Description:
Blueprint: E1 9-11, E2 14-16, E3 20-22, H1 38-46, E4 52-54, E5 58-59, H2 76-91, E6 96-101, E7 119-120, E8 129-132, E9 135-138, E10 143-144, H3 147-166, E11 171-175, H4 181-186, H5 201-204, H6 206-219, E12 224-228, H7 242-255, E13 260-264, H8 282-288, E14 293-296, H9 301-309, E15 315-318, H10 320-324, H11 328-334, E16 338-339, E17 370-371, H12 373-378
Parallel strand pairs: 3-4, 3-15, 4-6, 5-6, 6-11, 7-10, 11-12, 12-13, 13-14, 14-15
Antiparallel strand pairs: 1-2, 8-9, 16-17
Helix pairs in contact: 1-2, 3-6, 7-8
Amino acid sequence: MMSGLLSQLRIGALDLPNRVVMAPMGRARSGPDRAPGEIVARYYVQRATSGLIVTEASSVSPMSVSRPGTSAIYDAAQVAGWRLVTDRVHAAGGRIFQQLYHLGRKADHTRMPGGAPIVAPSAIACHGKIVGANGPVDFAVPRALKTSEIAGVVGEFRDAIRNARAAGMDGVEIHGANGYLIDEFLRDGTNRRTDRYGGDIANRARFLMEVVEEAVAIFGADRVGARLSPHFGVDGIADSDPAGTFRYIARELGARRLAYLHVIEAVVPGTPHSPPEMKPLLPALRDAFDGPLMANGSYTREAAEAAIAEGQADLVSFAALFIANPDLVERFRRRSGYNAADPTTFFKGGAAGYIDYPALDAVPDGGPRIRTRKEERRG
């Protein structure tokens, strides 16, 4: 019987043929209406041998605006575009969840409809710059949401979840990571509210739990996942007690019997998501969450196999490796080398660096360089 990454696993309502997950990755290939088209469908179909695909983060609201080509799921054209993707993935034998998010204070204020302000739990700007409509600019100071407005944002998530179901998704992943709106509510460094959505962790987690409960009501708990990033801090987001905060959240999500919990915690020292001075939280979240745990963070095949063998995780999601290796599962099976990803094409648009990476049995002379197993061990 096959073990480790290539073994079968049931999560929620789905039987997965392996534990290799395609991580959500923005690739900026959707159309001007933010709806995916033929090229996006082909990209996902190429990777349908993964145990599960989690789509690029898809905005739930026109008030969640990012670079051109990013995806959304709040109108009929976008639903139709995602239906094209799911039909093709299912025909190829794959399984696909849609990741849903609102950018919050990280939205592009230079592209907001009608010049509307960006919103967040509190009026605290991100650190750094954003590539705006006319070039790099500082992140804007967001407007703090009124208590009376929060139900409307939860409603935008609810409508997007319904749209994901109409688009044929097998489930949804609620994006509570990477400093976006839900994460901004969770952390006391970005949530200075004094109403029922601020203060102690039960209040700060209320927004996430309300969104999750909408997803559970529409899809069933066994088709809902959630993503967290306890150590993410590159945009200035922070929490005074990350261990306590994220243990509480994991425990509450587990009580709702979700299909899985997806945790970003890099295993390579010095990466932005895992500052060396921070204590790893994956073991604590593993204990707190009563269900399958998906790990993410610069894993090699060997590191992922070890995490599963040691019980640290049940599945592992891969990002850059899946960008450059559509047949990643087969490469793991053969213990082969990899195509090297070209970061200059990640958000460039078009087919290059998106759907033209060759499979193992179709590597042309002069094609993308193959990484050796020694390079893989180095990460």
